[in-house]
């Protein structure tokens, strides 16, 4: 009986000590984020998940973001792709055939946008629905190319239009980036993890900057961002992320301070 009591006491001590260490880490990370505007660390996976040879071949030949990564970063990227494939459900509509390549292309887009964030598995959606082309929404009673619906926790794409976003890589129109930008935005508003907090903090600064009448007029008059960006703050974020990934050099040249803040928001170089 005495031995059982000792074991129980030791287990309670370990749990309490673990909670104490966790609280210390959260405090240190919060302080680090306040000072440096980024997480204490981003990637940590001692046992990274592997993806299929077909998925790896796609990334190597069809996804430039992955190709530009270092060997170590590629392992992290593959791990995240594998985690996304495990977590999110894919649903076909109107007879569209969802292949391995389709799945990898979709989740690799999300992995690209969230690669600078430590907490990357978002719970604001759990399904990805894919139509072959433009579709009619029973909710909005309109035709759509894609959408993110936080109420149904669903991201929807027209595959034809998703592909067009990557086929033409410099027109700043990318459906995958656009809709997943809405996911990141919603995650930042709803979640309290360190990545969401840092994202929201920088987005607030960006929003305040863009709300300045003079600067806003400069953005509009530049004709760089399409006018749809100024519909509301959600669409503006989605549009500037399309520009950030498709024409980063021009973005940085035209609006260096805004570009820098977007980089800080995504924790990307």
Short summary:
The chain has 269 residues and is of the alpha/beta class.
Overview of this protein structure:
This protein is α/β, with parallel strands linked by helices and 269 residues long. It is 61% helix and 8% strand. The strands form two sheets. The chain has a four-stranded mixed beta sheet. It has a two-stranded antiparallel sheet with strand order 3-4. Helix 2 (53-62) packs across helix 5 and helix 11 crosses helix 12. The radius of gyration is 21 Å and the shape is globular.
Keywords:
four-stranded mixed sheet; two-stranded antiparallel ribbon; 269 residues; alpha/beta; Cyclin A, domain 1
Order of helices and strands: HHHHEHEEEEEHHHHHHH
CATH architecture: Orthogonal Bundle
Q: List how many beta strands DSSP finds.
A: 6
Distance between the termini: 59 Å
Instruction: Classify the helix fraction into a percent range.
Output: 55-70%
Low-confidence stretches: none
Quick one: CATH class?
Answer: Mainly Alpha
Give the tally of structural domains: 1
Sheet of most strands: 4 strands, mixed
CATH domain fold name = Cyclin A, domain 1
**Which structural class do the helices and strands define?**
alpha/beta
Strand order of the largest sheet: 1-2-6-5
Topology (SSEs and partners):
Elements: H1 2-36, H2 53-62, H3 64-67, H4 71-87, E1 89-92, H5 100-113, E2 127-131, E3 135-136, E4 143-144, E5 146-149, E6 154-158, H6 159-167, H7 175-190, H8 194-211, H9 213-222, H10 233-246, H11 248-254, H12 256-266
Parallel strand pairs: 1-2, 2-6
Antiparallel strand pairs: 3-4, 5-6
